[in-house]
Amino acid sequence: xxxxxxxxFAHTVIYMCAHSGDGAMGLVVNKRSDSIVFKELxxxxxxxxxxxxxxxxxxxxxxVETARGFVLHGGGYDHKGTMAVSDGIGLTASVxxxxxxxxxxxxxxxxxxxxxxxxxxxxxxxxxxxxGWLTADADEDLIFGxxxxxxxxxxxxxxxx
Length: 161
Hints:
CATH architecture: 3-Layer(aba) Sandwich
CATH superfamily: VC0467-like
Radius of gyration: 16 Å
Strand content: 25-35%
CATH class: Alpha Beta
Shape: globular
Number of helices: 5
CATH topology: VC0467-like
Helix content: 10-25%
Low-confidence stretches: none
Distance between the termini: 13 Å
């Protein structure tokens, strides 16, 4: 098992959104917020003028910039602020996508996270080398499977064989 000493990352599954020589950024996809619900978040960002037709859980994406929201989503949704993360997965950080999702539109598969997990240049590689993390291929079912939140870590570990 990985030897990450930071308790904030115990049993976390992190989807890596960006990784370069400058550093890395990812979202924890298996930790729901106990204190923030979608309706309250919408009110906080000024989206209180629409009828909520779709409610989604709010996840804690990581300890960095926890007031900033990100929507990780399946392909087929394209917004001017959408960043293509990989084939079939995008990342959008705008109030517009929250309004669309609340109204019943937007991407079918999506995960809303507040904050992100970030690493400086070479930091993630060093933590992996020191057995701080295990790595696995990304899997859309693992990321977006609504019933998997508490079991995502076990499911991800199971893919390693």
